[in-house]
Design goal:
Elements: E1 17-19, E2 30-34, H1 40-49, E3 56-57, E4 59-62, E5 66-73, E6 78-85, E7 91-94, H2 96-101, E8 119-129, E9 132-145, E10 148-161, H3 163-169, E11 175-178, H4 196-202, E12 210-215, E13 226-227, E14 231-235, E15 243-251, E16 259-261, E17 264-267, E18 270-273, E19 279-282, E20 289-291, H5 293-306, E21 325-327, E22 337-340, E23 346-349, H6 351-354, E24 356-357, E25 362-364, E26 367-369, E27 377-380, H7 382-385, E28 388-393, E29 398-404, H8 444-447
Parallel strand pairs: 2-3, 6-11, 7-10, 19-27, 20-26
Antiparallel strand pairs: 1-15, 2-14, 4-5, 4-13, 5-6, 5-9, 7-11, 8-9, 9-10, 12-14, 12-28, 15-29, 16-19, 17-18, 17-22, 20-27, 21-25, 22-23, 24-25, 28-29
GO molecular function: aspartic-type endopeptidase activity
Family: Belongs to the peptidase A1 family.
Pfam family, one: Asp
């Protein structure tokens, strides 16, 4: 694969390069649409009905916090709703027996007795995520996603979900499909698992070892909780209809995750350099942006709040899921927040891109402490991916970004009075009733962090 490179002699691991878009455009691709969930059966029906592209399937979006797709397993096929996660590698679905016993909390549950092609490899597997732990057995069966079928795909049939994982499932979804890089020589063997994208490549189902993700936002659907047209995954290339401008690529520097170097975050016109060695892990299974705690509390948040006249940084409140909040009237005065991946190019999120509705008057910020054992591993989730069309290229390996043709972003409630000039305030906390909640989800970032811990 050829790339057009500027300043190739500069720091190769950090500097971005403009890829020739023709390298990613091929005839042999498969489009999979993304959805933002509802109860599984409704989601499956809605996603199936949304397939309008020959050779395609669908993805869905739940209130801009998680993105799902429908896959099938077994012979005859059993359909399931799964979270699409570039931050882990395993495909897993809860078993029917596990759900009947109350040890799983999925929408459906796979029945191995109903599949003539099911093989239990009898290898115990357990995976811990930022939002819970699952355990089960490594198995094989026929796997189908969109138009592509793999006869003997390895996956995990789950026989136990801990309380946190069950809270995530909520009988709405069935599991997770992992799309991590994991091709590096030093990838953690405890994380590695045969991915479906690896199977697509090995079985020559796609022409190039690439997939791309375009995420849409619920604001394009009037803010409804279920957005069937939640986005699209293309395996084997890109869809030029979903981005504009150049695709700029960055070298993957992590052996397992789609991790690239992050040199600074800029708030307004003020650059806040990161420590040496910070890796931004591009993770579709994470809703928000997870940042090392000291950098977050001493640099990023003070810069954001001072731009709207608030000092010191207000304390978080359990009432609002322990996230940073701001009066919605001040939202239009919030500064741009930009990411610099080492080449000086800024990937900018305006307030419409990053503000989260909490109540009719309280708005949230998506920048939260990572809690990772490795303080240099930061997670860049869907807040960023909605703004920037993303390419995942195994051949480089690279992650590439282009400006997305996507959501209009967050819209302020009509009842909120807009205060255009910042006013110095003392940080306060408040309370909210369930009726006030716009988002309707407690502990949102915890629930939707499907990153391997």
């Amino acid at each position: 694969m050829q790339y057009k490179r500027a300043s190739l002699a500069l720091v190769a691991l950090a500097a971005g390069s403009r890829a020739d878009a023709n390298d990613y455009i091929t005839d042999k691709i498969m489009r999979v649409s993304i959805t933002k969930a509802a109860p599984s059966q409704d989601l499956i029906q809605g996603v199936d009905a949304a397939v309008v592209i020959p050779g395609g399937a669908s993805l869905a979006d739940l209130k801009d916090v998680s993105y799902y797709s429908v896959i099938s397993l077994g012979t005859p096929a059993q359909k399931f709703t799964v979270l699409v996660d570039t931050g882990s590698s395993a495909l897993w679905v809860g078993s029917k027996a596990c759900n009947l016993a109350g040890s799983c909390n999925d929408a459906e549950g796979f029945d191995p007795d109903a599949s003539s092609t099911f093989v239990d490899l009898a290898v115990a597997k357990s995976f811990g995520y930022g939002s819970g732990t699952i355990s089960g057995s490594q198995v094989q069966d026929t796997f189908t996603w969109g138009d592509y079928t793999v006869p003997k795909q390895d996956w995990v049939l789950v026989n136990n979900e801990d309380a946190s994982a069950q809270k995530l499932q909520k009988k709405q979804v069935d599991g997770l499909v992992g799309l991590a890089y994991q091709a590096g020589q030093n990838a953690n063997p405890n994380y590695k698992f045969p991915t479906v994208i690896e199977s697509f490549i090995k079985n020559n189902l796609i022409q190039k070892p690439v997939f791309s993700i375009w995420l849409n936002g619920t604001s394009d659907n009037g803010g409804q909780s279920l957005f069937v047209d939640g986005g699209e995954i293309v395996f084997g290339g890109v869809d030029p209809a979903h981005y504009k401008g150049d695709i700029v690529t960055y070298k993957v520097i992590d052996p397992y995750f789609w991790g690239i170097s992050l040199s600074a975050i800029q708030v307004g016109k003020t650059s806040l350099p990161t420590a040496s060695g910070v890796t931004a892990i591009i993770d579709s299974g994470t809703s928000f942006i997870y940042i090392e705690s000291n950098y977050l509390t001493t640099q990023l948040l003070p810069a954001i709040y001072s731009a709207i006249g608030i000092s010191p940084v207000p304390a978080t409140s359990p009432t609002y899921g322990n996230y940073q909040t701001v009066d919605c009237a001040l939202v239009p005065s919030l500064p741009d927040v930009s990411f610099n991946f080492g080449d000086g190019k800024l990937y900018t999120l305006g307030w419409r891109d990053y503000v989260i509705p909490v109540t009719s008057t309280v708005c949230g910020l998506p920048f939260v402490p990572s809690g990772r054992n490795n303080p240099n591993e930061w997670l860049v989730g869907d807040i960023f991916l909605r703004k920037f069309f993303t390419v995942f290229d195994f051949a480089g390996p690279y992650v590439g970004f282009a400006e997305s043709i996507s959501s209009k972003g967050f819209q302020l409630p009509a009842s909120v009075p807009v205060q255009t000039q910042p006013v110095l305030q003392t940080a306060t906390t408040g309370t909210k009733s369930g009726a006030e909640s716009v988002l309707g989800l407690s502990g949102l970032a915890v629930l939707f962090t499907s990153f391997l811990w």
